[in-house]
Amino acid sequence: MPILDEHSLEFLSHSPEQTRRVGVRLGEMLRGGHLICLDGDLGSGKTTLTQGIARGWGALESVTSPTFVLVNEYHRADSDVLYHVDAFRLATPEEAAEMGLAELLSTGRMVVMEWPAHVEALLPGDRLRVGLSWVDESRRALHFEARGGSHLRLLAQFRKAAFGG
């Protein structure tokens, strides 16, 4: 696990289950107001990572890709909600704003967003970006990059818990 600097780290996952386990570690640390942005080509593991994040966060439901509904909601026993957004089908930030995405991002909710580049203009500066890329049939490279104080703290906490560093 190369630690690039305090803002970033890289990890090579050797299987979908390992990607889920990394997600579980991250999900265990999430609190309201965190925004996790997942970038990567189709099949790079964004939904797999989200399955782990939701499991670690305590979601009661199984995670599915929100490609056709745009937003899935997952609930925890304490009534908190994790929002899983897929911005792939959003053509413009204006379209995203019309569907209420700006309000969702400003309410301090826990949000995991796939394809965030499609709505970059609406995103707050304070966020954690995870870039996923295909290495081969089972392996994926994950690049974590934190922006803003709360997500820098989250990345430091995640690095220590997941990798001991």
Q: What ranges have pLDDT less than 50 throughout 5 or more consecutive residues?
A: none
Give the N-to-C terminal Cα separation.
9 Å
The H/E string reads EEHEHEEHHEEEH
How do the strands line up in the largest sheet? 1-2-8-7-3-6-5-4
Radius of gyration: 15 Å
Q: What is the domain tally?
A: 1
Number of strands: 8
CATH class: Alpha Beta
Summed up, the helix count is 5
What general outline do the C-alpha atoms trace?
globular
Keywords for this structure?
alpha/beta, 5 helices, 31% helix, globular, eight-stranded mixed beta sheet, 165 residues, Rossmann fold
Structure commentary:
With 165 residues, the protein is α/β, with parallel strands linked by helices. The protein has one domain (11-160): P-loop containing nucleotide triphosphate hydrolases (Rossmann fold), CATH 3.40.50.300. Helix content is 31%, strand content 28%. The protein contains five helices and eight strands, in the order ββαβαββααβββα. The protein has helices at residues 16-27, 46-57, 93-98, 101-106, 149-163, and strands at residues 3-5, 8-13, 35-39, 71-75, 81-86, 110-114, 127-134, 140-147. Helix 1 crosses helix 2. The longest helix is centred in the C-terminal third of the chain and has 15 residues, at 149-163. The N and C termini lie close together (9 Å).
